[in-house]
Amino acid sequence: MATINIRRDVKDSFYRYQMPKLQSKIEGKGNGIKTVIPNMTDVAKALGRPPLYLTKFFGFELGAQTTIVADMDRYIVNGAHDAAKLQDLLDVFIRRFVLCASCLNPETELSINKKDQTITYDCKACGYRGEIDGRHKLTGVIVKNPPAKKSHKHKKASGHGEEDDAAEDELTRRIRKEAAELPTAETINEEDWAVDTSEEAVRARVQELEGNIENVLSLNDSRGEDDEADARYDEFGQWLELRLPMSDVDIYKKMKEENIHHKSKAIAVLVQRIIRPPFVGQFEKHAALFKKLCNSDKHERAILGGYERLIESTKLQHLDSVSKVLLEIYESDLVSEGTLEKWGAKPSKKYVSRETSKKIQESARPFLNWLAEASDESESEDE
């Protein structure tokens, strides 16, 4: 069976994380046409996720009904979909529901927080603990069908279970600390989804390609730009997510083609799409692109606003790195001193809730204090 790298952007032939290349078989015709994925179980096993998750994900992304007959190992998506299209969508699934945000390795195990119904993961490669973005509709499926817990009986059998746990916890704490300092038999049917998979129908459902993402990306609150439909920016964000990683040059070309390269709303969406946890080193990496796009205080504020929304989307998990990221933004000349000082003067609900804004600014205090002191020293020298 042909295998490929789980991360297809990694070209190393010795990359240790492999999976079977996705296969598809089209059956039926007319309104009864459907795509069967004969090796779904093998692919899912390589990713450490139940086949249910992958099948449902394809259904959501394609706006198509899915059918699973587990006893017969049949995983079906209505409509005709070639293997290449499904493989591209699988890349998105892997980025969102498999890879560790810190080390980008696929050695993650999911768990459900019963209290708030959030989905977290533990990375067995680097020790990082993160949270799955809850905006995609698949998260509802995962919560209702939680992954089976893996047995750890071998630890108890060794007679050193508690010592092993303590040693692992200490190692995990050390790894996290160092990483933070780096710069850089039942048939399951889908709900009553439309099964029209024509190009026109897929385009019409582009809003659902990444779930209810408009709840986070939508900027429809009369914030002073213009009143055109926010779907324009959401569609750009969704288009980008399906094609990452891609070069900043190609991103800029697409924004210019859509005539949104001068829009602050587009910049806020861009930040939320290409800046990845744990965020440190990411703005510097894309500095040339942001400089090309930003030419006003409003654009600079959009960079900060997009970053605020990223922090909020991770349930404030990365507050401890806010000052580092702001310093990076400042030293990369992406946001001016004046804009940063104005931003840090008082909480704002322009992009996030006032409470979240306050917490972010509290975390930014070391940087803001440094910026103020540096400004005072500069003024003294001028005198």
UniProtKB/TrEMBL annotation:
Protein's organism: Schizosaccharomyces octosporus (strain yFS286) (Fission yeast)
Keywords: GTP-binding, Initiation factor, Nucleotide-binding, Protein biosynthesis
Keyword Disulfide bond: no
Region (Disordered): 146-169
Domain of life (superkingdom): Eukaryota
Biased composition (Basic residues): 147-158
Lineage: Eukaryota, Fungi, Dikarya, Ascomycota, Taphrinomycotina
Domain W2: 226-381
GO BP, sorted A to Z: cytosolic ribosome assembly; formation of cytoplasmic translation initiation complex; negative regulation of translational initiation
GO molecular function: eukaryotic initiation factor eIF2 binding; GDP-dissociation inhibitor activity; GTP binding; GTPase activator activity; translation initiation factor activity
InterPro entries: ARM-type_fold, IF2/IF5, Transl_init_fac_IF2/IF5_dom, Transl_init_fac_IF2/IF5_N, Transl_init_fac_IF2/IF5_Zn-bd, W2_domain
CDD domains for this protein: W2_eIF5
Pfam families, A to Z: eIF-5_eIF-2B, W2
Protein known as: Translation initiation factor eIF5
PANTHER family: EUKARYOTIC TRANSLATION INITIATION FACTOR (PTHR23001), EUKARYOTIC TRANSLATION INITIATION FACTOR 5 (PTHR23001:SF7)
Gene Ontology CC annotations of this record: cytosol; eukaryotic 48S preinitiation complex; multi-eIF complex
